[in-house]
Amino acid sequence: MKRHLKFKTISLPKLDGLSPSLESTALKVAEEQGELARAIGKFRGISGEKVSMTQKEVLDEIAKELLDVAQTTISMCFVLEEEYGVDIDQKVEEHIQKLIDKGYIKSRDK
């Protein structure tokens, strides 16, 4: 019996008007991860800041920052494809196989 894996598919665009390098994009990913961590710190009350936001507002901020991380990461995928010839689709397949091999997900064929 074939098992269907559950996927969350988010399609994000290639950004126009930018000429990102591998290095600048990596730095931007780190910056966005920091902003995500800051938002989570607010949610958990460990940021040291007085939080005057509702839980819903903080969760909305976390979602926005997470999508900023995803967008920047996708931008880095475009750089790898266009500047270095990396086949990202193949890398995604290899990544899924790695998850199967580590037992994080069941094989697609079960």
Automatic annotation (TrEMBL):
SUPFAM superfamilies linked to this entry: all-alpha NTP pyrophosphatases
Keyword entries, A-Z: Hydrolase
Keyword Heme part of the UniProt annotation: no
Example of a GO MF term: hydrolase activity
Entries under InterPro entries matching the protein: AF0060_NTP-PPase_MazG-like, MazG-like_dom
Segments forming domain NTP pyrophosphohydrolase MazG-like: 22-101
Coiled coil: none
Name of the protein in question: MazG nucleotide pyrophosphohydrolase
Taxonomic source organism: Peptoclostridium acidaminophilum DSM 3953
